[in-house]
């Protein structure tokens, strides 16, 4: 039997980078490469890096260093690959560096170090590709790049302007995933609500009909495939109201991941956030009227340059009013190359950032805990992620994998990953729910 070259893969960064990793791996698997879990003994190591924050860059450089030590043949790709000089300065010996979404170049680099073996009995790649996520949920990327220019962000520089995939292409991929057993589709992009703007919303043929490349149309069609559909990275534009109607109708999960980042108009303006001018609290109120079950998750940044105590307090007031389900908070980091560094605004001292972060987290924890407590006594649908002999771990409709909380489900009958069960919630702690399958 022909030797199948072995590749070890490190995937760092956000869910969007994970989708890139899956594409590279799918291609390699189709060519007969074997994926191995350790660097030792592999024919090459691919490191898919994240270059968004300085801390992520440090993590990427450390992962490259480890791969060089343990293996020596290292190919680097992903966001940090857009700045090859930063990588070469620390690790001159990497074999190749390619930027984000450069699937072809990564594969060519692999061919150069470990040519593919031609074996007619190669493992066939499953029709839905190789998923790095468990089989019952999958990320579905609907576009690349971003037309916004938030001043703290280098993604548009790294990934360019918005390029949407035609609706029919997204739907075909989603249908394959569902047919292969995926029970939950996580829709991702840099700005999901801007989907199709670049295509002028052009329609494409899906089954017997034309589907426009529009957020509402795509969400409706995805919702008809029979899997849970979860929307990430949505901005509070007015047209999002229509999609909330689909949530009220049960077609799409009543969950919105909206990175608000701040609430002070002055800071939002300096951040150049999309939809910052809209009255966000009014919009949230309206959404909850349309879909009372709606759960919102968001992220915020404390310590953006120029943020005053008054700005920060506006953010705390917003939290209290908005009563969001889940919230993440980051301390601002001056990312090299981000326009925010050139705004001439005074940086916030580290200790002030830390204090504000603590105050923010404390305020939100109380709100999240109250929201969770309100679920006690209810019957919720829960998707099982990790079955256990007596207690399994799953998620409610308001919990995305990896970023939100869990529901611990006691059950007399054995549960399998991907099962969607009804659970009577008995208690809540600070982050998670506990209940019994009924
Ligand atoms: S919306 Fe803003 S933060 Fe998000 S990717 Fe685009 S520029 Fe970056």
Give your account of this protein's structure:
- Helix 11 (309-322) links the parallel strand 14 (295-302) and strand 15 (326-331).
- The protein is an alpha/beta fold and 438 residues long.
- The termini are far apart.
- The strands form six sheets. Strands 2-1-3-4-5 form a five-stranded parallel β-sheet, with helices on both faces.
- The protein has twelve helices and 20 strands.
- 33% of the residues lie in helices and 22% in strands.
- It is globular.
- The chain binds iron/sulfur cluster.
- Iron/sulfur cluster (SF4) binds at residues 146, 148-150, 153, 155-156, 190-191, 274.
- Residues 146, 148-150, 153, 155-156, 190-191, 274 line the site of iron/sulfur cluster.
Small molecules in complex: iron/sulfur cluster
Q: Oligomer, anyone? A: single chain
Count the beta strands: 20
Shape: globular
Beta-strand residue percentage? 15-25%
Helix run count: 12
Alpha-carbon Rg, integer: 23 Å
Roughly how much helix do the residues carry, as a percent range? 25-40%
The N- to C-terminal Cα distance equals 51 Å
Largest sheet: 5 strands, parallel
Summarize model confidence as the mean pLDDT. Answer: 89
- Give the strand order, joined by hyphens, for the main sheet: 2-1-3-4-5
Structural class: alpha/beta
Low-confidence stretches: 119-124
Protein name: Ribosomal protein uS12 methylthiotransferase RimO
Main location: cytoplasm
Cofactor: [4Fe-4S] cluster
GO molecular function: protein methylthiotransferase activity
């Amino acid at each position: 039997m022909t030797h199948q070259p072995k590749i070890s893969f490190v995937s760092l960064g956000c869910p969007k980078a994970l989708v890139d990793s899956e594409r590279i791996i799918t291609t390699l698997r189709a060519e007969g490469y074997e994926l191995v879990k350790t660097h030792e003994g592999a024919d090459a190591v691919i490191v898919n890096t994240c270059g968004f924050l300085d801390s992520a860059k440090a993590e990427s450089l450390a992962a490259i260093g480890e791969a060089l030590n343990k293996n020596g043949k290292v190919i680097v790709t992903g966001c940090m690959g857009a700045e090859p000089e930063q990588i070469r300065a620390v690790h001159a010996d990497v074999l190749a560096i390619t930027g984000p979404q450069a699937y072809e170049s990564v594969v060519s680099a692999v061919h150069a170090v470990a040519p593919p073996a031609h074996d007619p009995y190669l493992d066939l790649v499953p029709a839905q590709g190789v998923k790095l996520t468990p089989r019952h949920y999958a990320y579905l990327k609907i576009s690349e790049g971003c037309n916004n220019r938030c001043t703290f962000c280098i993604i548009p520089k790294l990934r360019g302007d918005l390029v949407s995939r035609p609706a029919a292409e997204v739907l075909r991929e989603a249908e394959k995933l569902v047919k292969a057993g995926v029970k939950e589709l996580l829709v991702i992009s840099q700005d999901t609500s801007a989907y199709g703007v670049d295509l002028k919303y052009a329609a494409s043929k899906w089954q017997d009909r034309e589907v426009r490349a529009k957020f509402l149309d795509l969400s409706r069609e995805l919702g008809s495939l029979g899997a849970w559909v979860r929307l990430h990275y949505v901005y509070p534009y007015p047209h999002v109201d229509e999609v909330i109607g689909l949530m009220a109708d049960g077609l799409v999960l009543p969950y919105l991941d909206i990175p608000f980042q701040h609430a002070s108009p002055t800071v939002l303006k300096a951040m150049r956030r999309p939809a910052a001018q809209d009255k966000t609290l009014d919009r949230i109120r309206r959404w909850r009227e349309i879909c009372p079950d709606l759960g919102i998750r968001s992220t915020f940044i404390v310590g953006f340059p120029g943020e005053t105590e008054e700005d920060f307090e506006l953010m705390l007031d917003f939290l209290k009013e908005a009563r969001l389900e889940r919230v993440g908070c980051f301390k601002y980091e001056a990312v090299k190359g981000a326009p925010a560094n050139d705004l001439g605004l005074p940086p916030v001292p580290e200790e002030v950032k830390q204090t504000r972060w603590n105050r923010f987290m404390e305020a939100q924890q109380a709100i999240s805990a109250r929201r969770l407590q309100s679920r006690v006594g209810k019957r919720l649908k829960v998707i099982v992620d990790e079955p256990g002999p007596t207690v399994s771990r799953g998620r409610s409709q308001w919990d995305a994998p990896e970023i939100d909380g869990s529901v611990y489900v006691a059950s007399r009958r054995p549960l399998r990953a991907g099962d969607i069960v009804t659970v009577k919630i008995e208690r809540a702690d600070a982050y998670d729910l506990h209940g019994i399958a009924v």
